[in-house]
Automatic annotation (TrEMBL):
Alphabetical list of InterPro entries matching this protein: Orn/Lys/Arg_deCO2ase_major_dom, Orn_Lys_Arg_decarboxylase-I, Prn/Lys/Arg_de-COase_C, Prn/Lys/Arg_de-COase_C_sf, PyrdxlP-dep_Trfase, PyrdxlP-dep_Trfase_major
Cofactor(s) annotated in UniProt: pyridoxal 5'-phosphate
Domain of life: Bacteria
Keyword terms, alphabetized: Decarboxylase, Lyase, Pyridoxal phosphate
Molecular function terms from GO: carboxy-lyase activity
Pfam families cross-referenced by the UniProt entry: OKR_DC_1, OKR_DC_1_C
Orn/Lys/Arg decarboxylases family 1 pyridoxal-P attachment site domain boundaries: 7-297
Signal sequence extent: none
UniProt source species: Thermoclostridium caenicola
Residue stretches making up the Orn/Lys/Arg decarboxylase C-terminal domain: 395-458
Family: Belongs to the Orn/Lys/Arg decarboxylase class-I family.
Protein name: Arginine decarboxylase
PANTHER family xref list: ARGININE DECARBOXYLASE (PTHR43277), DECARBOXYLASE, PUTATIVE-RELATED (PTHR43277:SF3)
């Protein structure tokens, strides 16, 4: 064991495993004995609540110590571990701030987890529409004037939840927006799932907690060296939330059998980034600068970096357009994967999105450049740098009822083409990025059906469409 690590949970697991105990406790694989191959070693650290291991739902030992270390590292008043990802953290934040049936101001391009939480609460979403850059076909930030207008029109809004950064790495300034929320006494919540690394380098956008957010959620596994399903739920230093309420809501929602392997992973990731984060991201910044120079000389592809007043970009989120060589994002992603073994984070009609971390090497970037050259060769040759003709519908779908009411109604599956004019009984969501195009209670338009058909025809994956069918609210039979 590396005794230099300030990792209470990991150290406890290593010490316990090193005593070679004979466990007659959960889990049933008995410290890896019953597991196969590589899982045996991992299983030796997979324990349950036993003397000395603490309890996530009532921490007073190593888990409490690890969470306090995380709060200090990320600049929070309190930090709670989520072993159910950012999803449960988003649910907990909303539940802590909004009463059943209450109103919440939320960005329309929020993650489906937020809309699911709103539906379960039977709350009413008031949407804030993001600004849109028609040149890059990317959403940007939100206008302060729109936020003020929404609060004026809906004085009974109980909380604000905004996503920052978005999936493409764009992080808009929120300090003044937080000030507006504070002036009317409502909490400002941030889905910062893609920004856990912001706290560890001045080269990255400023994190939400430093900007005054009352609470935020961060997925460690998205950008930091932590295992999938790990997230942190933070309360800001001057949070308006009732003390202890966020923890109570989180405890109600997440598993009572938390994985100690996942919690140790969070412990280790925080320790690594605290000790080495600034240097690691400085090295990554230099790698990406060199990559970008090579990309500029290549032709047929370009890096997309949205620009707008009050907008910062995460340099480690690499968004590429293969439009200059005639490839859609879906086509380029498939070529990268099948011809070069390079697996992107996601693609849409116009872009390929890559997440770079300090744990990518110089050789990795050389291989990426080689793969991009190969993809460009598959293109149709030099093209006008145009974007796809597949365009999303403008405006929001008509809302026929509250999303919480819609999910309680009897539903039936109909072919997508026959859904025009019907009320959706579930979210329909291209994934990634996990942003619903239509929510429960909203009406399918012909334009939306056309767009969903085009996404699938272009190779995109859409959750909520099963074997060509969508769920709609069952219509009452006529006498």
């Amino acid at each position: 064991m590396d005794t230099k690590r300030n990792t209470p949970i990991y150290n406890m697991l290593m010490n316990y495993s090193g005593t070679h105990p004979l466990p007659f406790h959960m889990p049933g694989h008995v410290m890896g004995r019953g597991l196969a191959d590589l899982f045996k070693e991992i299983g030796s650290l997979d324990i349950t609540e036993i003397p000395g291991s603490d309890c996530l739902h009532d921490p007073d030992g190593v888990i409490r110590m690890a969470q306090e270390l995380a709060a200090r590292a990320f600049g929070a008043r309190t930090t709670h571990f989520s072993v159910n990802g950012s999803t449960v953290g988003i649910h907990a934040m909303i539940r802590a701030a909004v009463k059943p049936g209450g109103k919440i101001l939320i960005n329309r391009d929020a993650h489906r987890a937020a809309f699911n939480a709103i539906a379960l609460l039977k709350a009413e979403p008031v949407f804030l529409m993001p600004e849109y850059d028609p040149t890059t076909r990317l959403t940007l930030g939100f206008r302060e004037a729109d936020l003020r207008s929404a609060l004026s029109e809906h004085p009974d809004i109980e909380a604000i939840l905004l996503t920052r950064p978005n999936y493409y790495g764009a992080a808009f300034h929120i300090r003044s927006m937080i000030g507006i929320a504070r002036s009317v006494g409502i909490p400002f919540l941030v889905d910062e799932a893609h920004g856990a690394h912001f706290a560890f380098s001045d080269l990255l956008p400023e994190p939400a907690l430093r900007l005054g957010a009352d609470a935020c959620v961060q997925s460690l596994h998205k950008t930091l060296p932590a295992m999938t399903q790990t997230a942190l739920v933070h309360e800001g230093p001057s949070s308006l939330l009732e003390p202890g309420r966020l923890f109570r809501c989180l405890s109600m929602l997440q598993t009572t059998s938390p994985s100690y392997v996942l919690m140790a992973s969070m412990d280790i990731a925080r320790d690594i980034m605290e000790r080495e984060g600034a240097q690691l991201y400085e090295a990554l910044y230099r790698r990406i600068q060199a990559f970008e120079r090579e990309l500029e000389d290549m032709g047929g592809v370009r890096r997309v970096v949205p620009e707008a007043p009050g907008l910062e970009n995460d340099f480690s989120r690499i968004v590429l357009s293969f439009g200059p060589c005639g490839l859609t994002g879906f086509q380029a992603e498939r070529i990268l994967r099948e011809s070069s073994g390079i697996v992107a984070e996601m693609a849409d009609e116009d872009h390929v999105v890559l997440i770079a971390t300090p744990f990518h090497s110089d050789a990795d970037f050389e291989n990426l450049l080689a793969g991009i050259r190969e993809a460009v060769r598959y293109g149709e040759g030099p093209q006008d740098d145009r974007l796809s003709v597949v365009k999303a519908p403008e405006g929001l779908p008509e809302r026929a009822m509250n999303p919480g009411d819609a999910i309680d109604r009897p539903a039936e599956a109909v072919e997508l083409a026959r859904a025009v004019g019907r009320i959706s009984a579930s979210a329909v969501t291209p994934y990634p990025p996990g942003i619903p195009l239509i929510m429960p209670g909203e009406v399918f338009s012909a334009e939306l059906v056309r767009y969903l058909t085009e996404i699938q025809g272009s190779g995109g994956r859409v959750h909520g469409i099963m074997e060509g069918r969508v769920l709609v609210i069952r219509q009452a039979k006529e006498n």
